[in-house]
Write a structure and sequence with these properties.
The complex is a heterodimer of chains A (163) and B (285). Chain A is of the alpha+beta class. Chain A is built from five helices and eight strands. In chain A, helix 4 crosses helix 5. The longest helix of chain A is centred in the C-terminal third of the chain and has 26 residues. By secondary structure, chain B is an alpha/beta fold. Chain B folds into two domains: 93 residues, Beta Barrel (Elongation Factor Tu (Ef-tu), domain 3); 122 residues, Nucleotide-binding domain of ferredoxin-NADP reductase (FNR) module (Rossmann fold), CATH 3.40.50. The chains are: A alpha+beta (163), B alpha/beta (285).
C-alpha cells in the first residue's frame, strides 16, 4: 500500500507534471496510484478493457501483439518517463490493442483513465495540457513505427546489386 | 592518430594480394574476413585510420568498397573487413575459404576525427552493418580512454539475431563505454530494448556543449539521429556522418559516388554535418 506522499514524490519526478498548476497537479494526484511490477508480470493483455494510463518510473515494460503462427511479437519497450496505454484516454476500440509485460522489476504510476477523461472534460486547461503531452508521445511513437515499417536495415541491393 | 599509408600511393588502381587468414561469422549474412598481405613489406607498412575503407577485388567478379572493421593499431598484423553478402562480388567472396586470395586497394576516405573530438563526450550512433566502420573508432577509444569523456554506443539492428560483435560488448562496457542496444522487432524471449536508434535521445540527457556525435548506418536512420541531435543543440561541426554511395575508384576520379560538390570516397566517407547540410535530406541527392 502506497501513501499519498509517496505518490506525490513520484509525480514530482515527471517533467511535464512539474509544469502543472498546483490545482491541476492535485487533481492528477487524486487519480494516481503506484504499482510495483516484477519482471514477467503482465500489466495488461491485448483485448483487455482499457482502465489505466501508465507512466513508467523505473524498469522496462514491453508492448507486444499476438500474431497467429508467430506468437507474440515485441514491437516497443517503454522505459523511464515513457507513457503506455495512451489509447485509454482517447478510446476508439475500447480495448487494449497490445499487451504490456514488465521485462525488468520496476515501478509505474497508474492513472485511472475514466477519471482522467472526466477531469479533462471538466477542465479544458488541464485537458489541453494532458492532450498536448499525449500528442507528443503519439508523435514519437509514430516516428518509431515509421522507421520500423520502412525496414531500414533491409539492403537495397538485396536482390542482386553489383557489390 | 596512426597515419594512413596506402599500399601503392603511386598506383592507386592496382591491388595488392592478401590472404584470408580467418573468417568470423557474425550473423546469417555477415562475416568478418581477416586479411594479411602476401608481401610482408606491404603488411609492415600498411596503416589505416578509423572510418576508412578498402576496395576488395575478386577476379572475375569485380571490386566492392568495404569498411575496415579491425583495430588500427593491429594493422601490421591483420586487417579485418566485415562484409554483408548482398551483391555479386560480396556473394562470391562469401564462397571463399581461409587461404584464398583477395585483391586489396586502400585505405581510402577521410577518417573519423578522433583527434578533434578529444575531451568531448562521444555518442556513437550506429545501425546494422554501420557498426563495422565505427568499431575501429571504439578500439581507438579503448586504447586512449582517458582522452574522452563519457562514451555511449547506441546500436540498433533489425532483430537480436542481426546484432554484430555480440561477444565484445562486455569488454567495451568494462572499459566504461555505455553500450545501449536496441532492435526493431523481437520475440517475447528478448528482454532488451525494442525500438529504433533515434529513440535513445528521448531517454538520456546530454550536454550539447561538450558532446560529439559519430553516426553510421542506414541513411534514414542517420537522418533521424541528426534531427534528434540538432534538436538537442549539438553543434553541426560536432555531428559527424559517415555516408556511403556507389564507390568505385576510391580516389574521386570516376564520379560514381558524387554528392553535391563532394566525392564521397575521397572527401568523405566521414563529413561534419555542417558540410553536408545543404545536400542532406534533399531528394535529388
Amino acid at each position: 500500500m502506497t501513501t499519498q506522499s509517496e505518490i506525490l514524490a513520484e509525480l514530482e519526478k515527471i517533467p511535464w507534471f512539474r509544469e502543472l498548476k498546483a490545482e491541476h497537479f492535485q487533481r492528477m494526484a487524486a487519480i494516481a496510484t503506484l504499482r510495483r511490477v516484477k519482471a514477467g508480470e503482465t500489466l495488461f493483455h491485448e483485448g483487455d478493457k482499457e482502465d489505466y494510463l501508465y507512466i513508467v518510473m523505473e524498469g522496462r515494460v514491453a508492448l507486444d501483439m499476438f500474431m497467429p503462427h508467430r506468437g507474440k511479437v515485441r514491437f516497443y519497450t517503454a522505459e523511464e518517463m515513457d507513457v503506455i496505454g495512451w489509447s485509454s484516454v482517447t478510446p476508439v476500440v475500447h480495448q487494449r490493442t497490445a499487451g504490456a509485460i514488465a521485462v525488468m522489476d520496476g515501478l509505474v504510476v497508474a492513472l485511472d483513465a475514466e477519471k482522467l477523461r472526466q477531469i479533462c472534460d471538466e477542465d479544458h486547461d488541464l485537458g489541453y495540457l494532458v492532450m498536448r503531452r499525449l500528442a507528443n508521445i503519439i508523435a514519437g511513437r509514430l516516428m518509431v513505427t515509421r522507421l520500423q515499417l520502412v525496414d531500414m536495415f533491409a539492403h537495397p541491393d538485396k536482390e542482386g546489386g553489383n557489390d | 592518430m596512426t597515419p594512413t599509408a596506402t599500399t601503392h600511393p603511386e598506383r592507386l588502381l592496382e591491388p595488392d594480394w592478401a590472404e584470408i587468414t580467418a573468417i568470423t561469422p557474425e550473423t546469417e549474412d555477415i562475416s568478418t574476413f581477416w586479411l594479411r598481405f602476401e608481401a610482408p613489406a606491404i603488411q609492415e607498412h600498411y596503416r589505416f585510420q578509423p572510418g576508412q575503407f578498402n576496395m576488395l577485388y575478386l577476379p572475375g567478379y569485380g571490386e566492392a568498397a568495404i569498411s575496415i572493421s579491425s583495430d588500427p593499431d593491429e594493422s601490421r598484423r591483420l586487417v579485418g573487413h566485415t562484409i554483408r553478402f548482398v551483391g555479386n562480388v560480396t556473394r562470391a567472396i562469401n564462397r571463399l575459404k581461409v587461404g584464398d586470395l583477395l585483391g586489396l586497394r586502400g585505405p581510402f576516405s577521410a577518417p573519423w576525427p578522433m583527434d578533434a573530438i578529444e575531451g568531448k563526450d562521444v555518442i556513437l550512433a550506429s545501425g546494422g552493418i554501420g557498426l563495422a566502420p565505427l568499431r575501429p573508432a571504439i578500439y581507438h577509444i579503448l586504447r586512449h580512454r582517458e582522452r574522452y569523456g563519457k562514451v555511449i554506443l547506441v546500436y540498433g539492428a533489425r532483430t537480436p539475431r542481426d546484432l554484430l560483435y555480440l561477444n565484445e560488448y562486455e569488454e567495451w562496457r568494462k572499459a566504461d563505454i555505455d553500450v545501449q542496444i536496441t532492435v526493431d522487432h523481437a520475440d517475447e524471449t528478448w528482454s532488451g530494448r525494442v525500438g529504433v536508434v533515434p529513440m535513445w535521445f528521448y531517454h538520456f540527457r546530454i550536454d550539447p556543449r561538450k558532446t560529439a556525435l559519430l553516426t553510421c548506418g542506414p541513411e534514414i536512420m542517420i537522418r533521424f539521429v541528426v534531427f534528434e541531435a540538432l534538436a538537442r543543440r549539438i553543434p553541426t561541426d560536432y555531428i559527424y556522418v559517415s555516408l556511403e554511395r556507389n564507390m568505385k575508384c576510391g580516389q574521386g576520379a570516376c564520379g560514381h559516388c558524387q554528392l553535391g560538390p563532394y566525392f564521397i570516397c575521397k572527401d568523405g566517407l566521414v563529413f561534419p554535418f555542417s558540410a553536408l547540410e545543404p545536400y542532406f535530406n534533399v531528394e535529388e541527392y
